Amino acid sequence: MSKQVILSSVMLTLVLVAILPTSHGQSCETTLASPLAANVDLIIANMKLMGGNPCCQTDCNDESCSTMLRMGTATLKMCGTPCNGCISCGDIATCVSKIRASCFARGRVQGTMACGRFTFGVSA
């Protein structure tokens, strides 16, 4: 799907790759500016390597979110209230794998998903 927008004699083509409605605590916002799927795969692999170890939310910002990991163009955020909780890193890998499967479009991925009491987000 594409739209053309004309601004002061400059024509821009906006391409929206995938936007899915929130269902079961998940939303996708994948565009051509979203992280590369290969970088999301690296996040998943790193979380799997840590397996059953706890991954904990610390250093929360105003939105009760912590940046867990950055790989190339992809950033993984963990959000929850109250802040400072933990979840198995392997469970995070499973959740991010579901985001990747649902939100993948044209080699890119961006979205959020609720997993337990946390919400995980993959973005640029």
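[next item in queue]
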Amino acid sequence: MAHKGIKLGSISSHQIFTTLNKWTGLNTALHRIIQSDTHSLRSGVSDKASTSVLWDRAVFAFSGQVDRQEIEGIVGLDEKGKGKGREKGMSVEERSYFKEALVALKLAKEVIRIQQGWRANAVTHLNRTGGFSRSLANSSTDWPYLLLELLSDAAEIDHFQPKLVMNNIDVLRNAVLTDDSTICASMYHDSLIWRIIALGANERCLPVILITSDSYYSYRAFIDFGFPDIFVSRETFGWTPEEAKLHMVTDYFSASEWRIVTEVLGPNPRHLFELYALKQSNHYQRMIAEQSSTFEDIADTYLAHLQITVANPTMEKAVSLVEKFANDAIGGKISKDKLRFGAPWRHPPRTDDASIRLQWARLQLTDFVQSLVNAEFGLNYFADCSLEIFDDPSAVAMLEVGLLYAQRDPSFIRPVSRGIERCLVRWLVQERMQMNFQQSLFFWWHRIIRGRSYRHLMLQIGYK
């Protein structure tokens, strides 16, 4: 997008310098880049030179270090330096202008890289001590933030209207640090979101669209970051047939296949991508050629894959979260409001036996999924204006691990897709079948005496 903005004349070398100079010091890094220019015998400049003079010298010096063919390819020139296609009528001045802007963009990235190198020891120390530093967090996100601010300033109606779509940003929030080359992923995530919010609140920011199956961004992020009006949630259960046609789904699935997908898995973009990849595999093509399999078989195979690799491991994470709730409740870390009279989770086992607590957590989650099945997986948590379901540790756990989705408007809680809904039912059946007589008896006692019932939160006919 930045390259396109440069080719449209919306981003210049001066704009890159002005934006970068607003929130970071440049002189020392620019001096180092100028002094590293081996093509100039007089690479040194006065210490009294202004930052803008240093920038111009650094752009000139750095232009000899970048790949000339790469720059000309982005501008739209061939190997002989002549324009191709739309760039044939480009004047020499325009080509020089675009080349300078592209070199300036690469220079800005190099300046940020040098500055991050100076902070390497501090980042290593921060990762080892587990502390927090706003300056280190911001320095790690300087490059994406620079691009975001440049594109936001360059946006112009009917000329250059960029939009940023970030897929699966929840992976970044939950990623694990493997080395000390940068700050931990959760701190990087929070710094990036904070700076995007600050840019939108204080200046202006291009539209940023977060596509994720983690309902944290719809039910919790606006509280954590303190800007409820910034996060405009538009959660969907999947694509309608019209939306699917718009996204060219019909180019990959026939009408009969599309009906099976929507019925079995739901029109979820992730399921569609993975199912199409499975459909294109050599094994499936060979089975179809031998007429030993149908598309229904591949849908069932994918559903089994989803059960084993996604649903079951994620439910184990949810069980561990409920077990942690039990430990916190016994330790007095849970408020009494959440342990009110009659709550099914009010009496965690007061014992040091980890296996008993694990069994209690699994019972709680099984009871919760059973209540979801009884409510037909459709809950309106604003139905009685009490938000009582968010006191349930099992509900919160399944929301946190991303199997359930809490929409803000309309206020539904439901599985992220119809495929996940089927996986939850299978998990419930599997848990019930694995119970021995004593566990089954205790489960039914719990269901009758303390069990959950959310049928009063079921979606009402006519609700909009």
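[queue empty]
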